[in-house]
Design a protein that fits this description.
Elements lengths: L2 H24 L3 H21 L6 E10 L8 E12 L6 E8 L4 H15 L9 E6 L3 E6 L1 H6 L1 H11 L24 H17 L4 E3 L4 E2 L3 E8 L5 H5 L2 H7 L7 E5 L2 E7 L8 H4 L14 E6 L5 E5 L8 E4 L6 H14 L6 E6 L27 H22 L4 H8 L5 E6 L2 H4 L4 H17 L5 E7 L9 H6 L2 E4 L5 H8 L12 E6 L2 E6 L5 H9 L6 H10 L2
Parallel strand pairs: 3-4, 13-16, 13-17, 14-15, 15-16
Antiparallel strand pairs: 1-2, 2-3, 4-5, 6-8, 7-8, 8-10, 9-10, 11-12, 17-18, 18-19
Length: 556
């Protein structure tokens, strides 16, 4: 294949379709588009010049489990190297990572250290790493093995920090307000980032000024700007890609209209994960026979844990969506952990549906389970949902006997606990992939529960990787009002779930948008450590209120 043929192939399969798709938004970015194409042409020329290297392979999977002395858990890193080649003359292996556009030397070296760490044991520990940049001229950097190894300690420390597995003591924060514990970030870097943001906007004819002090969160930094006279909101929205490129961001900034200002959410690097242990003291312990209907959602810019109230109409049922790596399963675990800490098995029970058998194993022996975890290859989901409907109807019969309208009134009248039931399905999409008759039966049962179950103290939390018209039928969409949108692959998926774009620009790993009747808010889901998960999974081994209270008090 000639260089010309490879260029034509790249344009036909990659560049052309993207230009057709994004043409309107790129209409004012002609220089950048031309520069990108020049870089792609240089890449094609280089690949042809490289020739048929012996043993060459591309998109090589990279996966390694890391653990350092003192870490509280291991960390798995996964990815793919762009190329792995054996030099024709020396026989040595070379990992090639291709970069289109700008890069950062420290990040490049860290990436080289990762590849050396992951691939050297299998291939050649003495092998060097080649970094080839196209911006658009080709630049080649050879990272010797010794240099890659020397970067390992700092690299491992960064991984441990980002994954929150470094040893640390959780301070006693009971007497410290969340506002007094801001998410730290160098002030000069925040100021510089804000100035660069305004500079980029001015270069494209968009005048703006800051409307307040920047607010630093664990995942992003929020800059509120006031548009200049005559500047439309659309003018700011149209410049998110330019801001991303010029500030060297990993995702487009997310824009939100606030009171008299436009909020730019700019990703922070490195981001800070929020350990569940840091917000555990914000979860109320069990509080009487009515139980605690509050379920954790995520942490805001102020450090406060935002919690849903299952007793509210707009929080009674949840739709949760997010692609692989978004943190969807971790969010479900955190939500469960918060409900367990706030209740006893007398107050709350879970009905867990796990089509993939991987989400809820840590709760297998929990007394909080209404019934054993449901695996859909063993138990028909229609049967389980029918049982839940039977419980709902039986409760309504009991309410009629006591002259009450809902679970709260009934418990107060009888002074006997009646547990809330939270039905959580990790992958609802799998449930509606059978034959049409089965799908219709499942949708009928889910719809009935969505419309009637709240007053009976029965709640649905349905999670899926693919929010689509098939998973979000009209009646289901109308009766499940609370939405948690984690990172999604496409803007149309964000609109399906949240009625607006934005989730496609989230940063993954628990970065989320929460929508209810009060509007939309961006939060960071806490990360439940393995130790906390296992401890909470065992909680309630003696299913009495005293046992749970003792456990909660001992951890506060």
């Amino acid at each position: 294949m000639s260089s010309y043929q490879l260029r034509a192939l790249a344009y036909e399969r990659v560049v052309g379709p993207r230009l057709s798709r994004d043409g309107p938004s790129l209409s004012t970015s002609a220089p950048e588009v031309v520069s990108c194409w020049d870089a792609i042409e240089a890449l094609c020329d280089w690949m042809i010049d490289l020739g048929p290297a012996a043993g060459a392979s591309t998109e090589v999977p990279v996966s390694i489990d890391l653990r350092e002395p003192g870490w509280r858990d291991s960390v798995r890193l996964t990815g793919a190297a762009d190329g792995l080649f054996r030099h024709p003359s020396t026989g040595r292996w070379c990992v090639v990572e291709l970069k289109l556009g700008r890069s950062r030397p420290h990040a490049d070296l860290a990436q080289a250290a990762l590849y050396h760490l992951a691939l050297a044991p299998e291939h050649d520990p003495s092998g060097a790493l080649a970094l080839v940049r196209f911006r658009p001229e080709r630049e080649e950097v050879l990272v010797p093995a010794a240099e890659a190894l020397s970067a390992r300690p700092a690299f491992m420390a960064l991984i441990g920090k980002l994954a929150d597995v470094l040893p640390h003591e959780v301070p006693n924060n009971k007497d410290v307000s969340p506002e007094a514990r801001p998410f730290e970030f160098p002030a000069d870097e925040v100021r510089s980032l804000g100035e660069r943001l305004l500079t980029v906007l001015r270069e494209y004819g968009v005048t703006a000024k800051f409307a307040g002090e920047p607010r630093v969160g664990p995942t992003y930094i929020r800059f509120e700007v006031e548009p200049g006279h005559g500047v439309k909101v659309a003018a700011l929205e149209q410049r998110t890609r330019e801001v991303r490129m010029r500030l060297e961001l990993g995702a487009d900034p997310i824009l939100t209209i606030t009171e008299g200002a436009i909020a730019f959410d700019i990703e922070r690097t490195p981001r800070r994960l929020v350990p569940f242990a840091d917000v555990r003291d914000q979860i109320d312990p069990p509080r009487g026979i009515l139980g605690n209907p509050r379920m954790p959602i995520g942490v805001g810019l102020d450090g406060r844990l935002r919690q849903a109230d299952l007793a509210r109409n707009d929080h009674a049922h949840f739709l949760v969506a997010g692609t692989t790596g978004s943190g969807k399963s971790e969010w479900l675990r955190t939500a469960i952990a918060g409900l367990v800490l706030g209740n006893t098995p007398e107050d709350l029970r879970f009905l867990l549906i796990d089509p993939k058998r991987t989400a809820f194993g840590w709760l297998r022996e929990s007394p909080f389970l209404l019934r054993p975890i449901v695996f859909t290859d063993e138990t028909a989901p229609t049967d389980v949902l029918s049982e839940l409907i039977d419980i709902m109807e039986e409760r309504y019969r009991q309410f009629a006997e006591t002259g009450t309208d809902d679970l709260v009134q009934h418990v107060r009248e009888t002074e006997r606990p009646m547990p809330r039931i939270v039905c959580i399905c990790d992958e609802y999409f799998d449930l509606v992939q059978g034959d049409n008759k089965q799908v219709k039966e499942i949708e009928q049962r889910i719809t009935k529960l969505g419309a009637k179950a709240r007053s009976a103290g029965i709640h649905l939390v349905l999670a899926t990787q693919q929010p689509s018209r098939k998973t979000l039928s009209g009646v289901l969409d109308a009766n499940i009002l609370a939405r948690v949108g984690l990172k999604m692959a496409k803007s149309i998926e964000s609109r399906m779930l949240l009625q607006r774009n934005g989730a496609e620009d989230l940063l993954g790993n628990g970065d989320l948008l929460f929508k209810d009747d009060q509007g939309l808010v961006r939060l960071q889901a806490p990360l439940l450590s393995v130790e906390d998960r296992d401890s909470i999974g065992r909680l309630g081994g003696r299913p009495t209120r005293q046992a749970v209270n003792e456990h909660v008090l001992s951890n506060r």
